Amino acid sequence: MIVWLFVPVAYLIGSISSAIIICRLMRLPDPREQGSGNPGATNVMRIGGKKAATITLLGDLLKGLLPVYIAGLMGASLELLAVIGLAAFLGHLYPVFFKFKGGKGVATSIGILLGFSWLLGFAFIGTWLLIYKLGKISSLSALCASFISPVYAWFIVGDTSIVSAAFIMMVFLLWRHKSNIKRLMNGEE
User: Fold this and answer.
1) pTM, 2 dp
2) Radius of gyration of the chain from its Cα atoms, rounded to whole angstroms
3) Which of 52, 73, 149, 182 is the most buried (most CB within 10 A)?
């Protein structure tokens, strides 16, 4: 029963904006007011460089991974792990600490997928890296990897709750990247 407490805790952990905190600590501009205006690792890269972006990426990844992984160690069912993962993901997208205006969710979703299954997370990362190597466009890489992640979840984990969570994250990732999709279609990304 105590693992159900992971759901609100996962949302609160997801609500911690790594980008905003790292930019404040490193005395960089607020990522919501610079570059793309998105509090995520790609925008932090634009305004603060590789070191700040890497730390942001790891922070966002860990806030997806840790709640799912720890709940799994405590014996949470796959259904509960799916709910915990979605809570962390929604916390990142709609953070209570930052007026419900968060990032796009790519790194946090990777952490969640790693928490579900290391192989599932690495399948996402491998797809992202392959598409990035071919096209050198971060948003396209994220979109392709997230689009195929429910299929990976089906073949790697085989549980409908995990597949459903991967599908829901994919839908939100596509929605959050709608401006990127428009620029990709116009050849401007």
Assistant:
1) 0.93
2) 16
3) 149
C-alpha dist (Å) from residue 3 to 69, 71, 77, 79, 171? 12, 6, 9, 12, 27
CB atoms within 10 A of CB 110: 26
* 70-92 tens-digit pLDDT: 999 999 999 999 999 999 999 99
Q: Domain range spanning residue 149? A: 2-185
Q: Which two tokens stand for residue 74?
A: 């405590």
Confidence of residue 19 (pLDDT cuts 50, 70, 90): very high
Domain count, the chain: 1
As given in the structure block, the two tokens for residue 14 are: 């997801």
